[in-house]
Each structure stands twice: as C-alpha cells, then as structure tokens.
Amino acid sequence: TIDGRKLPANELAQLSELQPGMDYFEVTVSDNGIGFEQQYANRIFVVFQRLNVSPENSGHGIGLAICNKIALNHNGLIYAKGEPGAGAVFTVILPLRRS
Description:
The chain has 99 residues and is α+β, with helices and mostly antiparallel strands. The chain has 2 helices and 4 strands; from the N terminus they run βαβαββ. It has a single domain (2-95), classed as Histidine kinase-like ATPase, C-terminal domain (Heat Shock Protein 90, 2-Layer Sandwich). It has a 4-stranded antiparallel β-sheet with strand order 1-2-4-3, with helices on one face. β3 (77-83) and β4 (87-95) form a beta hairpin. The termini are far apart.
C-alpha cells in the first residue's frame, strides 16, 4: 500500500532531523512481506547490507541505500518499521520546496 500526506507541523517537532518552518510531504509504503527485526531498521539502509540472504529473496543490498541517499540529498529522511512475518512500513519525508 502506498499513501501520502502533508506532514502536520506538530509532528515535525518529533523529527529533529528536519528543519522547522518548512513544509514536508510524507510517503509511506507498506507491504506484507517477510518483515525484519526492528533492531536492524537502520542497517537496511547501509549499502550491500542484506538481512535475509536466502535464495528466495533476491537483491544486492543497494536499493534502500540509494533511497536513503536520495532522501538525504533532498534534505529529507527515510526510515522503516518492521515485524518478522508481518511485513514492513517504509516512510520517506521530503520538503515540499527546496531550501
């Protein structure tokens, strides 16, 4: 599922990485895949890091690292929440205008 919304100012206070006074848009992508342990949530954004290396799960560990770099280069952020066997939710927050 993909969803998007303008991020309310009161929620920005919880995200210290973002600049106050700017308008942001949040995009969430959720799935019902294999999920992951929350303790590895930051590790999945490191290049060539894969949490599951079984043959059924293809990939090289660069896709989310690229997404992270794009978000950071646009003064935004990306984070993930997961649960093994229940899927994951990926959230990207980007400014509506360039600073």
